[in-house]
Amino acid sequence: MEIEEAIKRAKKNNQKAFNYLLDTFWDNVYGFQLKRTHNENDAEDITIQTFSKAFDKIDTFDESLNFKTWLITISKNIHIDLLRKEKNSINQVISKDEREVFEVLDESPSAEDKLITEQHLAKLLRDIKKLKPHYQEVINLRYFQELSYKEISKELDEPMNNIKVKLLRAKKLLAEIIKQK
Length: 181
Hints:
Blueprint: H1 3-11, H2 15-37, H3 40-56, H4 67-88, E1 90-96, E2 99-104, H5 111-128, H6 133-144, H7 149-156, H8 160-180
Antiparallel strand pairs: 1-2
Helix pairs in contact: 1-2, 2-3, 2-4, 3-4, 6-8, 7-8
Family: Belongs to the sigma-70 factor family. ECF subfamily.
Keywords: Sigma factor, Transcription, Transcription regulation
Pfam families: Sigma70_r2 (PF04542), Sigma70_r4_2 (PF08281)
């Protein structure tokens, strides 16, 4: 399958085309992020977010552009957004008694926040149970047991790219279930 053909098929929601594009460009995006972040986990997370966003917005891709460049641009923007969020976690610098003090946001949850989180978690678990068992399993292993992709790959005896695609697909299906409510 050629890249142009895969893009056209992906725009028609063809799963094999998504897999082909993921397999073809994963190393490029991951390598780009690894050079920027110097952290394998961050690079992997940003790369997954990149493909997830790209596949969600593939119908907006202008075929006169280079697909790899489009992915790298999405990846770069996601990384910049994450850096901005980190920067904003320190609210502002205050000068007090001739010394600088950083005012850090208090992110510890209140009792109400904990209750709301528990209720949301219960709803989320009910929604996850609506997925096919193999999607439930990858979500459980990744987000509840916090296994790496490599560990999930070994656990399920499947190639790591399959795990990544399954996880992307599971998240997309879960989002559709949640939106339907």
